[in-house]
Amino acid sequence: MRENIHLGCEKCTRRNYHTTKNKKTTTGKLSLKKYCRWCKEHTMHKEMKL
């Protein structure tokens, strides 16, 4: 079953992206390197609570 999640910047903690993940195969928190338009650089974005 896929679950909707929000990705937030680790520097400014703003929620910039939303995506889905498979709960069965990815049990931990998802972390991706994405572009933050407020920080104006590529930063790590972690899964945040809705």
Automatic annotation (TrEMBL):
Recall the GO molecular function terms of this protein's record.
Answer: structural constituent of ribosome
Gene3D superfamilies assigned: Ribosomal protein L33 (2.20.28.120)
- Name the UniProt key words of this record, in alphabetical order: Ribonucleoprotein, Ribosomal protein
Please give the GO cellular component terms listed in this UniProt entry.
cytoplasm; ribonucleoprotein complex; ribosome
What InterPro entries does the entry give? Ribosomal_bL33, Ribosomal_bL33_CS, Ribosomal_bL33_sf, Ribosomal_zn-bd
Q: Which Pfam families match?
A: Ribosomal_L33
Gene Ontology annotations of biological process type? translation
Ribonucleoprotein found in the keyword field? yes
- Annotated TM spans: none
Q: Does the keyword Ribonucleoprotein apply?
A: yes
NCBIfam families with a match to the protein in the record:
PRK00504.1, PRK00595.1, rpmG_bact
Q: Which family does it belong to?
A: Belongs to the bacterial ribosomal protein bL33 family.
Name the record gives this protein: LSU ribosomal protein L33p @ LSU ribosomal protein L33p, zinc-dependent
